[in-house]
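REQUEST ID: PR-0412
SUBMITTED BY: lab tech R.K.
PRIORITY: routine
TASK: structure prediction, single protein chain
INPUT:
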Amino acid sequence: MKLPTLLAYSVMALAMCATIYFNMALKPSSFSAFLFFAVWLTAPYMAMGVALFYLQKAGRATVYWCALAILISGGGIIFLLDVIYWHRDAQGAIAVALTPILQLMACALLSPLAWWLSRDARS
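STATUS: complete
OUTPUT:
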């Protein structure tokens, strides 16, 4: 496994652990609520991990795709830190629930750039 891919997997694993810790800070009312939010909030990291795995298997996991995964993971953690700890607000729960959707939108906006840069780097 190449260093950028290993770094991306490490950052995503750290982001997943931090997200689950932040989920505990929200104090869900039941274990089912905790489990639902844990799965919902870690879904982007799982999806990026699967995508990187298949890109690596196909030999296309360039540093740009790894940087995209690191950027989206870091952005999600910073957003959750802001909403949960730094700027608490009554609408914070809505922002927390929308975090995976915002990460998906960031991925959709930046994926063409990563694809273009990795296509350019291969030629």
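NOTES: Helices lie at 3-25, 31-57, 63-86, 92-122.
REVIEWED BY: pending
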